[in-house]
Amino acid sequence: MLSAEDFRQITFEDRPFFMEFQSRYPPEHSDYIFSTMVCWQHYMRYSYARNHDSVIIMTEHEGEIRFRPPMGPKDRTTLEEVIRLSREINGENSFSVVDPEMKDWLQAEFPNMEFQPQRDYFDYVYLAKDLAELSGKRYLKIRNQLNYFLKHNTYSAEEISKENIAEAREFLVKWCLQKGCVEEPLLNSERIAVQTALANFTELGLSGLIIRINGIVEAFSVFEKMSNDTAVVHFEKANFTYKGIYQAINRETAKFLVNDFKFINRETDMGIKGLRKAKEKYHPHHFVEVYHV
Questions:
Q1: What does pTM read for this prediction?
Q2: Do residues 2 and 82 make contact, with C-beta atoms less than 8 angstroms apart?
């Protein structure tokens, strides 16, 4: 019988298991990606348990425990076990970050379940070609901002490597001071997540780009393969005193990925108004919608 004692905190040592498991059951939503769970472990405590052939994720944030529906084969027995455990811990059936495919299965098994959209955690998914080319009237404002940057700056783009990753980490410190992120809890949590990603870049199988202006790193992006047709961009940071630089790192990343991936997942906006506006301006091809049960 599944119990809270069966769950163990996700650590770097679990990567081989998750890589093999998720090669068979690719995640639909970015929050299920191993590197996401490890890098944000300080903010949202991620634990997992194995039950038969399924994997169950449990999260804890500010004392609130939530469960994800079982990953892997559709197993009603395991599903019922998680529901029972959720009742014992929370007094309610409480699933979060339920993607549409899982929602359909849950509704078929339990028609009385109620689903509430978690709009703040919808993943934004774009056609890589759209982000790389920025063609058409709908991208006119973005092209104007990018062209301003190109006109006023000479820059170079290069892959993140062991030779330059220290410079990316130094830039993160500068970015944090610029944004005052230590005083903003969510920004500070993101800083820690980015630090973790850069400190364990090779071990996590991450890739990335940096932009230099006058030889100095002024922007970077961090990304990885999510599935055969989709790459996920985890982080983009830039010195916002350079007008258009975010548009530049966004396009450089898309140009780097477009030959290998049809889609680019740029994760969620977490309910941050400015971030939502910025992501919507790039006209997502679709969302990966998620629900709370």
A1: 0.95
A2: yes
pLDDT digits (tens, 9 = 90+) for 219-241: 999 999 999 999 999 999 999 99
- What SS3 string covers 147-214? HHHHHHCCEEEEECCCCCHHHHHHHHHHHHHHHCHHHCHHHHHHHHHHHHHHHCCCCCCCEEEEEEEC
Tokens found for residue 206: 């991450």
Using CA atoms, how far apart are residues 49 and 51, in angstroms rounded to an integer?
6
C-alpha to C-alpha distances, 52 to 199, 216, 256, nearest whole angstrom: 34, 51, 40
Integer Cα distance of 160 and 13 in angstroms: 24
Per the structure block, which two tokens stand in for 229?
């047709």
pLDDT of residue 91: 67
What gap in Å lies between CA 39 and CA 226, rounded to an integer?
16
Residue 124, token pair as written in the block: 């934004």
Q: Of 112, 244, 215, 201, nearest to 156 (Cα)?
A: 215
Tokens 């994760």: give the residue.
Answer: 267
Tens of pLDDT along 167-176? 999 999 999 9
Torsion of CA 1, 99, 280, 193, to 10 degrees: 30
Q: How many Cβ atoms are within 10 Å of 155's Cβ, its own excluded?
A: 17
Backbone Cα Rg of the chain: 20
Residues 6+ apart with CB under 8 A from 143: 134
| Domains of the chain (ranges, CATH numbers) | 4-114 (3.40.630.30), 123-288 (3.40.630.30)
CA dist., res. 69 & res. 79, Å (int): 7
pLDDT digits (tens, 9 = 90+) for 10-62: 999 999 999 999 999 999 999 999 999 999 999 999 999 999 899 999 999 98
Q: 131's torsion region: left (phi>0), alpha (psi -120 to 50) or beta?
A: alpha
